[in-house]
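User: Run a structure prediction on this.
Assistant: Running it now.
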Amino acid sequence: MWEAVSGSDNLDDNPDPFNNEEILGKRIFPGAENPGGAARDKVKLKITGGLPNAVMHLKAFDVDDPVPAAFDNERKLDENDLANVAPTGVTPGQDNRGSVNGSSAGVFVTTNQPTAQVTLDANGEGEIEFKVTMQPGDNFRVVGQILSDSELGSVQETDASATKYVSADDEPVEGFGSGAASPLLTVWRKLHIENDSMSMPVTKPSPDRQTGTGSNWGTVTSGGGNIRTTLVVSLSESVPTDFYASGKIVSGSQTHNLYAINTHGAGSSITVTFATELTQAERDGFNLSSIEIFDDDDQALPSGWSAALPRMDLINETVKSKFKLCHIDLVEAPASYNNSDVPFELNIPSNLLNPGGYVPNSVKNKATLPDSDEYWAMTVTATYQDIEDDDLDPNGDVGAFGGTDDGLGIAMIYIENQIDDSTIFGTQTPTINESKLLKLLDDVVAHEIGHVPGSKNEAEEHAEGGLMDNQILGGGQTLEFTPLTIDRLRSPDSWRTD
């Protein structure tokens, strides 16, 4: 049986993510417990029920990845199954991604090889330390024979149709009556996430908010027969047509939602159309010499949100569940690394959109959690919105929901862009589709984290499909990573630099 090495809390039951998390042997988390720490890649094999004082001969095997064929039907994840599918449907091993001293089957600490011997005590018991690879999804079993190793050479993990095949489970090795086999041991990795966030300022900067003066009340009748009030407003800065559509206007004792905006000339003089027809008392409540106009940002928020930012809850159980098929456990970074005071920027500066300069210093300087081969880590930062051309202002504009710098290991989540995309405007009270927003947010966080490892470019990663397909995020279907993505996420040495 497998037991944790003294002082290492790195072993527990292995919940099979492809089979409703039914227990399938044990799992080991070989990564470091803290930033800069050493790998915890050793586990103890405990032997019981043997002959007193006998020598047991041991051999480790890289057994098959137990991913179901129905999930990996094109063998993108378990590629060595492509030409080797046995008639029984059981597939061959030797498919681990990692290796120790050249062995994908792991090694025994005493020999630094996949074979070793243990002399049992007077009770027929013994133990030996075993060192695993560091790649999530790698699988191991150890087979042992008492007194002689005469049959160990014929035990194998490559031909499921032959005898003495070591399967990826806890079952005995068929045809190997003189020996015994350990339960399955599977590698998982923890991915430590630093969750940073901007916070909302007391007063947002322009162009989301502008001041001006008003004149010339009027009315307009829409095609549906709705009568709406209009007002000419002279602003301090020019704006594109409809930039403030679905926003709000504040003056004196009055606050009202806007339906449409039409610019005049250079755009500093605009005609605003209210969502309704104002009464004379409402018009009289305006101070036309002091008017504020806001765009549609923050006009609708889901229940429990007092503002779009800060968001310090991005790594929730739904996001974590997306990575279980990769045998990756998302965990929050130590609290000292998480920051809710990233300086606010209305838009990600457009002049930073070039290789090596995607992330503004306001975000970059707060991201301090280090990544290494032993300690996988990255930063997810809640920001406000994308560059001005892609921030969904005015409505109908294009927009992105997030952006990632792979080399820095920083994913930026554009919260206001997602709110805009999930809100129905053009009514007296903008209405947010709360379930759509929360699903979109979870999908985007997982998607952006999934961009970091590997050498593919963004378009190639989007082409992997499933959760990496940027065209279907937030839709009605439940999205998960495809075998192509899982293969990429299981393969790096360190999370952000491979």
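The two ends are 35 Å apart (CA to CA).
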